[in-house]
Automatic annotation (TrEMBL):
Record keyword DNA damage present: no
Superkingdom of this protein's organism: Eukaryota
Catalysed reactions, semicolon-separated: (R)-pantoate + beta-alanine + ATP = (R)-pantothenate + AMP + diphosphate + H(+)
Root EC class: ligase
InterPro entries given in the database record: Pantoate_ligase (IPR003721), Pantoate_ligase_C (IPR042176), Rossmann-like_a/b/a_fold (IPR014729)
Classification via CDD domains: PanC (cd00560)
Pathway terms, separated by semicolons: Cofactor biosynthesis; (R)-pantothenate biosynthesis; (R)-pantothenate from (R)-pantoate and beta-alanine: step 1/1
Name of protein: Pantoate--beta-alanine ligase
PANTHER family, sorted: CYTIDYLATE KINASE/PANTOATE-BETA-ALANINE LIGASE, PANTOATE--BETA-ALANINE LIGASE
Keyword entries, A-Z: ATP-binding, Ligase, Nucleotide-binding, Pantothenate biosynthesis
Pfam families linked to this entry: Pantoate_ligase
Length: 302
């Protein structure tokens, strides 16, 4: 019999689905997304389905993590195609139940939400100390929005395990701290970054914004990360040399670098050289109005 994906829109429907899974003694794996699903998302769904009896995927473009000048309105919204992709995937999974949680903005934010922080009302979650640097430097609103929506989604879906992608490496660090600080009974699992097999560009829903020329030039950042990793593997630990390798490769395609960082995997503070705990080499660059991010783990794995 074909495996269907139940599409749920309300908290009440998720609670009923959750109770039915528990009744059937299923563990629950959760994948949070903003939709426009690609193989990076499906890889997390695959991991969730290998490790859980039932899988719930949220599809919600979260206004709280966008600033007023960002792309909330343009962000791709493709719910029907997303459900079709998950339904196709569900046919390959044996025995698991799959659900999509696609709430309205008012279901997630009953007191309303605006991207203007000074006008927001309601309950927010902030992970201080890990949210201000790197991505938080350019997007000061961002991790407050992410931590708030993910904590709401955890309360709604009550999963045993939640799966996030290494592509958004700082998000993984922030959410790991949030789970620890707020004692969420959820195990976080991090999936490796899925890349275009031809040129290594990290898959991202925002890649659809790129022109043909920008798409051709974009993989230079990843090539730089690979060169830096090769230098590390040949014994180089120095920040300037590792960061320099990325800058040099990115320059070949005139990428407009916003930041490149070598940071401590726990504190995300900048380091001068890779230590025995390893380091995260990460950065962001702009191509026209599109902003992309990528990273490489140096000397450690999640
Ligand atoms: N290429 C990828 N490899 C692994 N995980 C990914 C990849 N892209 C996204 N994810 C993960 O999927 C989850 C949902 O991400 P999201 O819906 O924001 O997609 P996205 O492609 O990162 O979109 P955006 O372009 O907005 O950054 C996050 O945990 C994210 O880290
Ligand atoms: C975790 C998340 C779904 C929260 O909106 C988002 O930040 C993302 O897609 O990475
Ligand atoms: N994947 C992170 C979501 C965002 O950039 O808004």
């Amino acid at each position: 019999m074909a495996n269907i994906v139940q599409v749920l829109h309300t908290v009440k429907e998720v609670r009923e689905w959750h109770a039915a899974q528990r009744q059937a003694n299923k563990t629950i794996g959760f994948v949070a997304t903003m939709g426009a699903l690609h193989s990076g998302h499906l890889n997390l769904v695959q991991q969730a389905s290998c490790e859980s009896g039932s899988v719930i995927v949220s599809i919600f473009v979260n206004p709280a993590q966008f600033a007023p000048h960002e792309d909330l309105d343009q962000y791709p919204r493709t719910l029907d195609a997303d459900v079709a992709k998950l339904t196709e995937f569900a046919q390959t999974a044996a025995g698991q139940a799959f659900a999509v949680f696609a709430p309205s903005v008012s279901e997630m934010y009953p007191r309303g939400i605006t991207t203007h922080r000074d006008q927001q009302k309601g309950t927010f979650v902030e992970v201080l100390g890990l949210s201000e640097m790197l991505e938080g430097g350019t997007r000061p609103h961002f991790f407050r929005g992410v931590a708030t929506v993910v904590s709401r989604l955890f309360h709604i879906t009550m999963p045993d395990k939640a799966f996030f992608g290494q592509k958004d490496v700082q998000q993984c660090c922030v959410l790991r701290a949030m789970v620890r600080d707020l004692h969420f009974p959820v195990e976080l699992r991090i999936g490796a970054t899925v890349r275009d097999p031809t040129d290594g560009l990290a898959l991202s829903s925002r890649n659809v914004y790129l022109t043909e020329d920008q798409r051709k030039r974009a993989p230079a950042f990843y090539r730089g990360l690979c060169k830096a990793k090769a230098l590390f593997e040949s014994g180089v630990l120095d920040r300037d040399e590792l960061v320099g390798a990325v800058i040099k490769e990115a320059a070949t395609q005139d990428l407009e670098i916003e930041y490149i960082s070598l940071s401590d995997p726990d504190t995300l503070e900048e380091v001068d050289s890779v230590t025995s705990s390893g380091a995260i080499l990460s950065g962001a660059w702009r191509m026209g109005t599109t902003r992309l991010i990528d990273n490489m783990l140096i000397g450690f794995e999640f």
